Amino acid sequence: MRKKDIEKQNCIKNSVVQLMLEEGFQGTSIAKIAKAAGVSPATVYIYYENKEAMLREIYKEYAENTFQYMLENLSPDMRGEEIISELIRRYYLFIIDNKEVFHFTEQYSSCPILKSNCGSMRGPANLNQLLTDLKNKQIIHNYSNDNIYAILFSPVKSIAIKSYDTESVAAERLDELVFMLQKLLLKE
Amino acid sequence: MRKKDIEKQNCIKNSVVQLMLEEGFQGTSIAKIAKAAGVSPATVYIYYENKEAMLREIYKEYAENTFQYMLENLSPDMRGEEIISELIRRYYLFIIDNKEVFHFTEQYSSCPILKSNCGSMRGPANLNQLLTDLKNKQIIHNYSNDNIYAILFSPVKSIAIKSYDTESVAAERLDELVFMLQKLLLKE
Amino acid sequence: MRKKDIEKQNCIKNSVVQLMLEEGFQGTSIAKIAKAAGVSPATVYIYYENKEAMLREIYKEYAENTFQYMLENLSPDMRGEEIISELIRRYYLFIIDNKEVFHFTEQYSSCPILKSNCGSMRGPANLNQLLTDLKNKQIIHNYSNDNIYAILFSPVKSIAIKSYDTESVAAERLDELVFMLQKLLLKE
Amino acid sequence: MRKKDIEKQNCIKNSVVQLMLEEGFQGTSIAKIAKAAGVSPATVYIYYENKEAMLREIYKEYAENTFQYMLENLSPDMRGEEIISELIRRYYLFIIDNKEVFHFTEQYSSCPILKSNCGSMRGPANLNQLLTDLKNKQIIHNYSNDNIYAILFSPVKSIAIKSYDTESVAAERLDELVFMLQKLLLKE
DNA sequence: GATGAATGAGAGTTCATTCAT
DNA sequence: TATGAATGAACTCTCATTCAT
To answer: I need a surface site. Which of A171, B158, C9, D122 has the fewest CB within 10 A?
Structure first.
């Protein structure tokens, strides 16, 4: 008996994510995925029950990763400025450094049919807790979590997607955005 | 529903947009579009060169509509608060009232291959002009247009997509968001 | 617009029946059928909704044909001997002359899954009526229709399937069988 | 259910027969058989050279069983009525009690490709001997063995397959059939 | 002997598009 | 202009079988 090859599954995952970036949803067929991963189409079905389950599982894994990445540098004794700065900058970095993964999760979660079958994740819960704590400690204004959430992460996503000519310009934009959101959210 | 020429083309457009919402990209095949529009598949090719061109043209038309809708209630003599409020609320209303169209344009513009062949539009130019004017008149802070743009429109999109239990909760969230952005962007 | 080509549909039907005889159920794939019929696999789906529906429709048509063929030479003024003789000999002839069709209907009706979705047919009803009449007229013994039915048609099927060395031997067997069943069923 | 060697092979055999009844030929894949038998697909190939050989071997075994079952209650000193009654009733009972096995052998023997590779069996020879003896002893009429064979076993098969509402109706039909065939075949 | 992983071939079906009317 | 018929290519997925352990 051959053991299940984790490397092979990783090949498949990477191929899925890469193809989704390069060719979009339409280009992400089982045949193309298999060829890109260097396996037979039938092999894909050893690791995933079907195409939909495959995309869902990969999505859930990467989506969790995103939240973990964002939160992992936070510590409870940081000041408000630092927390906001860190959250935004980590998210920005994640998008830049994981272009393909980010694009895949965005594509996936924008498709309502796929998203609906997806259950819930632990990431957002942690983040909600963090925001509630900051409000209780009178560090940030008492806005609704939905709005804080939206204003913290949607804009940074917008500017991270844009491709600026030089890195210095991009850094400038990011600094400014951090400044804006600190001013908006922090008390005093 | 079937009269002539333009009527028929509108049927096709509506079917495309509706199918894209109901069944996603995969469910939007020429055959299904044609059946939903009450025409033959071959007829679609009288109005559009091919499927890609069809999607592109419909996208461009609707994308322009969005900007037009957002800007059409603005007048030069409005106060800063009103301008910001109006921009955000109009965008929110547009998303709510044109769920299908909004979803279609989002889906489309998130697909890199499709988007690339799409050229530029007039809508954003007008908006950029507006923002620049407001900054010159010392009404809003001198942030970069990219960041203003991102912070004005991404968050509202986020909360418009969410489905709240009651309309009053949704209205509350929107009011708060308007308040936040007014505070952030307006001088004094 | 091209008109639906009845000749093409007949080609498909013939290919199905022939392949079922030559290669059995397993050999009857859409691809093989299409190739044998000289059309594209996709064309098959213009004439039939799917494979199961295709087999079902072809079956029903041919099954009706069988009954019609058996009954079409009977007239109300025939004597009991003639009726029994004619029924058996016509059925025998049908099997010999329509080997492929007969084999197809047998294959089909022996598969419980397929058969179940098949509804009812007019043929058996007519035959039941005939048997009941003969019993009422005191021409044949008052056995249950099920048993008469079984004893009239199952044995002839058995010997028709067998391949005898010469036709004369086959004819002898058939004559004997007719004689046996006349003796069994007829009064006096 | 899993002990060793023969136990395992029996598991496979049972799964084959059961699946063939439940899902027909198409549903009887090696993978499904293996899963139903609680073994690996590869294990099937330890006991059988390939799928076709597997079906053939199982068929031959069960087909022999059928004849053995039918003949095993006969003794040379039985009267003609008893012999005919016993043959028919045993066959009927076999079909009812071994629905799955019966269905499997029927399915198998109706497929021309499979059947051809199947050689001859000992069962029919014994039966032919029995019939010839009865004719020599002037117990039954001197009809050809083919016709006797056909008329003895085809009708009972027909009515055994039918599903009657109550057992008493089924028993009635069977009694009548036995009576008919005794009258037809026995001298005096 | 026994297994789960692996696969090329092929299954049924739908695709975007063109053809003939 | 408008159509339903027609199709080669591609789709998702399963097949019987073999491989490596």
So the answer is: D122
Read off φ and ψ for residue C173, nearest 5 degrees: -60, -45
- Look at residue D77 in the predicted model and tell me its pLDDT: 84
- Structural domains in chain A, CATH included, are 1-48 (1.10.10.60), 57-185 (1.10.357.10)
State CA B169 to chain mean position distance: 23
pLDDT digits (tens, 9 = 90+) for C54-72: 999 999 999 988 888 988 8
Helix residue ranges per DSSP H, A25-79: 30-37, 41-47, 51-71
B in contact with A (at least 3 C-beta pairs within 8 A): yes
Task: Please name the residues in contact with B88: beta carbons below 8 A apart, sequence gap of 6 or more.
Answer: B152, B153, B156, B174, B177, B178, B181
| Digit-coded pLDDT (tens) for D112-162 | 777 766 666 666 778 888 889 999 999 999 999 999 999 999 999 999 988
pLDDT digits (tens, 9 = 90+) for A57-113: 999 999 888 888 888 888 878 999 999 999 999 999 999 999 999 999 988 888 777
pTM above 0.85, yes or no: yes
What is the per-residue pLDDT across D101-116, written as a single tens digit (0 to 9) for each? 999 998 888 877 777 6
Q: Chains with ≥3 Cβ pairs under 8 A against A?
A: B
The one-letter code for the residue type at D97 is D
Do A158 and B177 count as a contact with CB atoms less than 8 A apart?
no
Closest CA to B163 of A146, C61, A45: A146
Residues in chain A: 188
- Which residue shows structure tokens 């009449």? C133
Residue A188 neighbours by CB under 8 Å, 6+ apart: none
- What is the phi/psi pair of residue B49, to 5°? -65, -45
Tell me the residue type at A16: V
Q: D57 near D48, Cβ under 8 Å? A: yes
Q: Phi-psi bin for B138: left (phi > 0), alpha (psi -120 to 50), beta? A: left
Helix (H) or strand (E) holding A29: none
Q: How confident is the model at residue B2 (pLDDT cuts 50, 70, 90)?
A: very low
Q: How far is B3 from chain A (nearest CA, A)?
A: 34
pLDDT at residue A40 is higher than 90? yes
Q: What share of chain C is helix, strand, coil (3-state, %, to 5)?
A: 75, 0, 25
What is the pLDDT at residue A115? 73
Q: What angle do CA B39, B21, B107 make, to 5 degrees?
A: 110
Chains D and C touch (3+ CB pairs under 8 A): yes
